[in-house]
Each structure stands twice: as structure tokens, then as C-alpha cells.
Design a protein that fits this description.
3 helices, 4 strands, elongated, alpha+beta, two-stranded antiparallel ribbon
Length: about 80
């Protein structure tokens, strides 16, 4: 198999206090996909990804004049 398809990457993060259970998260990227972060979190982890995934960024209007369009796309 090609090295491109057989390569796997992962990151393990340990957070929390010494006496608490270890919170382990693993992000695995292979075959062009970043696998779902939530499936690697243990059941005792109380973390919600909704805010990160569904956050709406502000929308800004960009107004371009005819002169600016002509400079960008000369005929």
C-alpha cells in the first residue's frame, strides 16, 4: 500500500487534576479524513462540541464599485 494511504496521525491530550480520571482525546487523520473527535472521548467527559461546530461567524457586506471591478478584471 502507498505510504500516503498507510500514514496515520494522532494527538493525545491529558487534562485534569492528578486524582481525576485521565481525559484522553485522540484526533486521527488518515486517508484524507479527520475522524470525529467525539467518538474518542470517554463517557465521563462532559464537553460539548456544538459551540465549536455550529458557531456562526458575523457576515460582512463587501461593496465593490464598477471601477474596482474593472481593475480586478481588465478586458
Amino acid at each position: 500500500m502507498s505510504p500516503t494511504f498507510s500514514r496515520a496521525e494522532h494527538t493525545v491530550v491529558n487534562v485534569g487534576e492528578e486524582e481525576s480520571p485521565r481525559l484522553i482525546t485522540c484526533v486521527k487523520a488518515s486517508q484524507g479524513f479527520d475522524w470525529n473527535l467525539e467518538i474518542f472521548l470517554p463517557s465521563y467527559a462532559d464537553y460539548h462540541f456544538d459551540d465549536l461546530e455550529r458557531r456562526q461567524d458575523p457576515v460582512e457586506d463587501i461593496i465593490v464599485t464598477e471601477e474596482e471591478v474593472e481593475k480586478m478584471f481588465p478586458s
